Amino acid sequence: xxxxxxxxxxxxxxxxxxxxxxxxxxxxxxxxxxRRRFHGSTGETTKSRAQKFEERxxxxxxxxxxxxxxxxxxxxxxxxxxxxxxxxSEVDELIAIKHCCRLIGSDRRLTSLTTDDIAIxxxxxxxxxxxxxxxxxxxxxxxxxxIIEIMRKVLKRAKRVWHVRIDLDAFDWSSMRxxxxxxxxxxxxxxxxDRFWDAMREDYGPFVWFLLSRGLRxxxxxxxSKDRLDEPRCRIQIWIKxxxxxxxxxxxxxxxxxxxEAKKAPGKAVWSYEMQRHPNRGxxxxxxxxxxxxxxxTALKAAGITDFRIHDLRHDFASxxxxxxxDLALVKNALKHADISSTIxxxxxxxxxxxxxxxxxxxxxxxxxxxxxxxxxxxxx
Length: 381
Fold this sequence. Notes:
Strand order of the largest sheet: 5-6-7
CATH architecture of the largest domain: Orthogonal Bundle
Largest sheet: 3 strands, antiparallel
Low-confidence stretches: none
Oligomer: single chain
Number of helices: 15
CATH class of the largest domain: Mainly Alpha
Radius of gyration: 32 Å
């Protein structure tokens, strides 16, 4: 079909009227053995110019790769089907894909994307809040993960697997990445632990004790279930982001407390607290991440402890375990870190070993110098 102007019949007069001042093109070409239809507006108001536009479009289609027409939305859908579907990280990556399509445009062709397009999406996401009620800005690490990392994965697969002609070297990923603040490690110091325990509610005591003695993430511990306990082997099954359900060991004392608390908790929950308000006063309710965060904030305020977050309970455990064992590999396994680089943040604890070693070296050097001087004096006589 050659170029044409779209038209329709007027319901009142019955006459044909044009729906657009521009000519449109509509043609079919065989590419890699597959017949494909291409159509759209030429943006031209004269037939001769529209025909020239159609010829240019045909040449462009013949010269392009088999999937150069792929849009970001199509690529993300295919990436989900081929790569992330069924993985434990599926939900998080789907959220990231949704943000990319929303901020960049799902109808954008991959071949037309530039560094500026992704950089603009990064800035937009960095200026958004975590939710309607939570007005905190999205963290730089989250922005990098949801925009830069997922786009890099999709474009890389499009280039190497789907044969979309993309110049990956044209994207300056390092310049787009937001600077992430170095995570600080905080633990209870001085009498902070005693003041914290004095201020914490008694019914939350077993849960807090377990967090400090095992070092699990709060949401993982709160999500424990009665049907995922292995009492004979002293192990529990928890959900770890990126890995799914994983068995982790616990001590006999920890297992005893877990079983005792599980008997008190309603449903499949393991940890629970006593409700304080009428008419449910005294009833047991499952401990949740949000509820515990509020309770912990109240206790910290009453104890006069500042700059201490809910995740610092895990830092406190890791620091004390490393101080007791001097074994980074053991701490890595206890925390279920995927890489030792995540555990290195606690290496400051080993500075005490270095300090003791330097002091021992100073003492030995001082003794050696004194002995050498004594020998020199005797030889001089």
